[in-house]
């Protein structure tokens, strides 16, 4: 319902051609045209829909990225803490080379923009998901063989990868909510157009009804005159004129009945319009 949707977007209440917006504890009455302009403005600035969400998420991404990058550098130059069987060491070194290469590629996909646009956030969301997949692949493919020698580093990498996955999910949810709000704005714009069309049709019907009622009153006035003339003729026994007057009365009566039926038809249309109006609200 359009007014419920408007209240959910702007707060406050709406009636007729106006809606009230809550601003700093005060209610401001807006016309539908003003609502249309404000919705258009919000649609052109989609970041406003998630402004409270994305700043802390970008900070988290930057923080996790820095920690993973630092850990990866440490892992590249890491040496065993004690004696290790040559075969295990060789396997761990080869796995470490492959793992750190994938981690480095993942880090490259985690750079958070400073002053992002909506598109920047969409791109980052996609890049973070790719980074999460790279880290998961690195852990699954090489985590065990590298962890056999560098257990602490692999364990830390796992925790950081899990944190990144969590933040990536939060950003994705936030963007989805933003898209939903934008979709709601689009739908509300369509509802406003429908409401304005209903208002226009309502005014047209009112004008037609007024016109028909005027014609009905005019015909009724003519009928009254003819009846008076008929009564006068009946008293004077001027029979030829009497028949003519009767014919005119019959014609006017038929005309009145036609107008009455048209008024009834327009009233039915108006009733249907009110039902449609209330349904739209």
TrEMBL record:
Biased composition (Basic and acidic residues): 14-28
Keywords per UniProt: Coiled coil
Protein name: Uncharacterized protein
Protein's organism: candidate division MSBL1 archaeon SCGC-AAA259J03
UniProt-annotated stretches for the region Disordered: 1-28
Coiled-coil boundaries: 175-262
């Amino acid at each position: 319902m359009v007014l419920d949707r408007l209240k959910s977007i702007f707060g406050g209440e709406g009636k007729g051609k106006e809606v009230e917006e809550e601003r700093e504890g005060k209610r401001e009455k807006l016309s539908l045209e003003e609502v249309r302009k404000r919705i258009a403005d919000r649609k052109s600035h989609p970041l406003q829909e998630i402004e409270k969400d994305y700043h802390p998420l970008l900070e988290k991404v930057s923080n996790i990225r820095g920690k993973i990058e630092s850990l990866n550098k440490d892992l590249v130059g890491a040496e065993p803490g004690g004696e290790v069987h040559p075969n295990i060491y060789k396997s761990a070194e080869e796995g470490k080379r492959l793992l750190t290469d994938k981690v480095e590629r993942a880090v490259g996909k985690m750079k958070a923009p400073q002053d992002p646009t909506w598109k920047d956030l969409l791109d980052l969301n996609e890049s973070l998901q790719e980074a999460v997949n790279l880290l998961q692949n690195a852990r699954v493919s090489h985590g065990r063989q590298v962890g056999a020698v560098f257990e602490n580093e692999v364990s830390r990498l796992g925790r950081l990868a899990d944190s990144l996955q969590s933040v990536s999910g939060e950003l994705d949810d936030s963007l989805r909510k933003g898209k939903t709000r934008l979709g709601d704005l689009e739908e509300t714009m369509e509802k406003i157009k429908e409401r304005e069309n209903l208002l226009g049709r309502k005014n047209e019907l009112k004008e037609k009804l007024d016109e028909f009622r005027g014609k009905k009153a005019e015909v009724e006035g003519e009928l009254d005159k003819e009846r008076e003339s008929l009564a006068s003729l009946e008293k004077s026994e001027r029979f030829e004129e009497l028949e003519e007057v009767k014919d005119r009365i019959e014609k006017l009566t038929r005309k009145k009945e036609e107008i009455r039926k048209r008024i009834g038809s327009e009233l039915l249309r108006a009733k249907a319009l009110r039902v449609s109006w209330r349904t739209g609200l």
